[in-house]
């Protein structure tokens, strides 16, 4: 078990502050003092698969930790009370200054995102997106740059996240058949 897993990091009840906050095998904590019950659930995140007119896949470079400098798909966490579709549009606008013309759900993959010494478990939902125009594309927000790759030339070892690597591999395989 990784030292960043919640059961190794969380020590106090967030409701009453008691140390009698016990982890259970159903991915939950239960406070013996105030009976507060906290489940560790998966957070939703989105990723966009964007192909240009040459058939090349758009990948971004992370400007922040975790995985600073590694390749990624554009996307991010779904905000509270936000649909995944709105999250895809918001993230692509924030990170690349692009507008999505059309999107279609592709697949999901589980992920462990370590941030601040805590494992945050996500379900990464990938969408195939068509862009109105690449004319005003620019790297912003939490990406330092973007690169287009021919499907056979994608450096998978430079993709930081296991989930994103699996999504990209599936996308390439499905588009080469």
From TrEMBL:
Domain of life of the native organism: Bacteria
One Pfam family from the record: NUDIX
GO molecular function: metal ion binding; NADH pyrophosphatase activity
Listed InterPro entries: NAD-cap_RNA_hydrolase_NudC (IPR050241), NUDIX_hydrolase-like_dom_sf (IPR015797), NUDIX_hydrolase_CS (IPR020084), NUDIX_hydrolase_dom (IPR000086)
Record keywords, A-Z: Hydrolase, Magnesium, Metal-binding
Cellular component annotations (GO), alphabetically ordered: cytosol
Cofactor(s) needed: Mg(2+)
Annotated Nudix hydrolase domain residues: 41-177
GO biological process: NAD+ catabolic process; NADP+ catabolic process
Protein name: Mutator protein MutT
Organism: Marinifilum flexuosum
């Amino acid at each position: 078990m990784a030292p960043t897993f919640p059961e190794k990091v969380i020590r106090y009840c967030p409701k009453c502050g008691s140390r009698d906050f016990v982890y259970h095998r159903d991915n939950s904590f239960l406070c013996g003092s105030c009976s507060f019950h906290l489940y560790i659930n998966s957070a939703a995140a989105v990723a966009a698969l964007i192909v240009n007119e040459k058939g090349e896949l758009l990948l971004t470079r992370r400007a922040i930790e975790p995985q600073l400098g590694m390749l990624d798909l554009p996307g991010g966490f779904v905000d509270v009370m936000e649909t995944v579709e709105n999250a895809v549009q918001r993230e692509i606008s924030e990170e690349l200054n692009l507008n999505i013309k059309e999107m279609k759900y592709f697949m999901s993959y589980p992920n462990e995102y370590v941030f601040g010494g805590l494992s945050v478990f996500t379900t990464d939902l990938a969408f195939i997106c068509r862009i109105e125009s690449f004319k005003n594309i620019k790297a912003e927000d939490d990406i330092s740059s973007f690169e287009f790759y021919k499907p056979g030339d994608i450096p998978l070892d430079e993709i930081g996240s296991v989930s994103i690597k699996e999504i990209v591999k599936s996308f390439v395989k499905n588009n080469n058949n």
